[in-house]
Amino acid sequence: MIAKPEFADLRGRRLAVWLCSMRPTDRYRWSMADNDLAKMRSEYASTGLDEETAGHDPVALARRWLHDAIAARVAEPNAMALATSTASGMPSVRLVLLKGLDETGAVFYTNYDSRKGRELAENPNAAAVMIWHQIGRQLRFEGPVRKLAPAECDEYFNSRPLGARISAASSPQSHTVANRAELERRWRETESAGVADCRPTGWGGYRIEIEAFEFWHGREDRLHDRVHFSKVGDHWTRERLAP
Ligand SMILES: Cc1cc2nc3c(=O)[nH]c(=O)nc-3n(C[C@H](O)[C@H](O)[C@H](O)COP(=O)(O)O)c2cc1C
Q: Least packed by Cβ within 10 Å: which of 12, 28, 123, 168?
């Protein structure tokens, strides 16, 4: 459903701002003047996240939020910024796609010899954040990371379209290549060799064994809701954080 256009008067200009939303209560407005980042402002809805709605099961809540994002037709609703770091603590971040989320953790797939793969070999801990602008929500989680079992990687690899399997098998992710032509040559050679039916051992999945979640819901006047869960043994403890 498309929200009606709303207008904000900034620097004498009337700028049309509008957003899509499935749920009017979650609608927020975005104003922008002359591409000036300092002047960009989002107004968040008055609904938020209270303790009753948050409950005591953060995995169930995270899955609900993901479904809300899908229902709101957010672009790439399962994209998450994934932060890793070297053993000495130098961080790096990039987007990956969340491919599974349950009590065992959050799953993503990549090249084990990529920068993130090498950093995870040195320091098997990660943090991730998902942003769903249209519904004014952010989800963070973090924890130790383990490689998935080969059978689980095979199952997902085999479910991918052929072109994506060839790319995974032919692209030395995060390593320098001479030019685009080299990438395309590698892709064609892999295609002709017919090896993309078999998952390369250097490509597979990881599971973040989540030990902490934070649910952020935008509220009016920047008085946002932040509900944090930490895993203690088999249980989750819940607390509210100041925005
Ligand atoms: C929306 C989006 C989704 C992406 N999903 C993945 C993914 O699931 N796995 C992956 O390896 N790279 C994915 N990428 C590419 C990564 O952001 C990144 O370029 C690549 O993994 C290399 O990162 P690294 O050099 O830090 O290891 C995605 C990029 C975008 C923009």
A: 12
Q: Whose CA is nearest to atom 29 of ligand 1?
A: 95
Q: Has residue 80 got a pLDDT over 70?
A: yes
Closest-lying ligand 1 atom to the alpha carbon of residue 117: 27
Q: Which atom of ligand 1 is nearest to the CA of 110?
A: 11
Closest to 128 in 3D by CA, of 73, 66, 208, 61: 208
Atom of ligand 1 nearest to the CA of 119: 27
DSSP per position, 44-61: PPS----HHHH-S-HHHH
Among 13, 63, 73, 222, the one annotated catalytic: 222
41 Cα–ligand 1 center, Å: 29
84-97 burial, b for 16+ CB within 10 Å, e for fewer? bbeeeeeeeeeebe
Residue 239 is classified by DSSP as: E
Catalytic residue check, 63: no
Q: Which residues line ligand 1 (CB under 6 A)?
A: 76, 79, 92, 94-97, 108-111, 114-116, 173-174
Domain boundaries, the chain: 1-43, 44-240
pTM of the model: 0.86
> Region 190-194: what's the mean pLDDT?
93
Q: Find, among 119, 161, 146, the residue nearest to 204 by Cα.
A: 146
| Residue 57 pLDDT > 70 | yes
